[in-house]
Amino acid sequence: MSKFLRCLLAFFFLCSPIVLLAQTTAPTHTDAQSDRIAKLEQQIADSKGSADNAWMLMSSALVLLMTGPGLALFYGGLVRKKNVLATMMQSFALMAVVTVVWAIVGYSLSFGEGNSFIGGLHNLFLHGVGAQPDPDYAATIPAQTFMVYQLMFAIITPALITGAFAERMKFSAMVVFMVLWSAIVYSPMAHMVWGKGGLLNAALGGRFPMLDFAGGTVVHVTSGVSALVCALYLGRRIGYPRQAMPPHSMVLSFIGACLLWVGWFGFNAGSALSAGSLATSAFVATHFAAATAVIGWVTAEWLRNGKPSALGAISGAVAGLVAITPAAGFVTPMAALGIGAIAGVFCYLMVAHVKARFGYDDSLDAFGVHGAGGTIGALLTGVFASSAVNPIFKDASGRVLASGALEGNTHQFVNQAIGVAIAAALAVVGTLAILKFVDAVMGLRVPEDHEIQGLDLSQHGEEGYDWELPVPAAAAAFSQVAAHGSGLPREISRIDAQAAMGD
Predict the structure, then answer these.
(1) pTM
(2) Is residue 320's pLDDT more than 90?
């Protein structure tokens, strides 16, 4: 027995160092694992941040593409040829002017911390806007990326208004008007919907949580209603509506519309502010709504006029893209199809019937497409919003709540209507005040002889097209006319046809 005890003691004596060693080395092994896990998590977070940042920079470029060349070509083709450069120059100039305004004060008024209606001055001259993310807006991208993305929205919004006063406003007056409009109308609305503490901000606890994913009210209702105010204040173009004023180049407008459609993916899918599944959902909704809006507009036009037109098709596409803008990140693909179809028909009726009934000269239908399309899109968002797509509303315990009326949240439609009403009221009051001020200081409208001559020459001293034959060629051509009597050479016929395209 004693021999057994001695063996047992010897066994424990030999094993005890191993046990002690295991106890002392185990924590070291655990710490190493924790370090490796922490580093791996950081690498994953960095990779996600890099992917999100890359997508947002690409989206920023796509939204800028919508203004130049997209909107510039779209609007430029719709005016008469004597105004093509002046119209395109308005969009291009705003790319420069609004950028400077945004850097100095616009971003701060829109996204700085302030009150329920407008941001403060803490971010003047982009103070504090650098490489670190702002988690209230976008936790995985630099604040500077978020800033430049939002800048592209601030550029295209006033550019949309230019379609209403095309062919009759002074370039100098347009620049001053847009600088003031950006600060007085756009920035407060952007803050109310998207800014910290904004009255309508659904994500950050606004008093009236309105769903506006990418700018149905901020961009389209404000610009569309402002466009109508401008059209009414400036009055009709000389000769309208007695004189026909068809687009001088549907080809330019067609190319511009295609660029707008492509750029709108950055506009809507980019508003997810990350490269995740929500961006995919918004991308799909955007494309689907544009498609059915084309079909809706063209069908209505076909039934009324007996022919489908290219102008109708591209107008329908823009109407669908406008209407889906507030809803893109909240609705299913099938709901997007419905929103697009409704918007296509509704905007066609606004342009073809309402405009004709009241006789206002909204030159390029900025109100009929953007104002009307943004309104119907914002209201339908309150109907079709789905918590399965974007669970934006949650209770105190984190439980997902219904988003739209079809899910049982009927009050959301009321919130949407409140948001539209605020946007429209701000646009009417702000735009009218700015117009009166600019008109009193420098005048808004070009003189009658300048309008007849065309804004290309009267405002910029250049022309978009040079279709005149050199003198020797012209002399030879007219000699052919004299030699052949009434038989016009093909060259002369082509020149005359081109000269007849607009004034």
Answers:
(1) 0.87
(2) yes
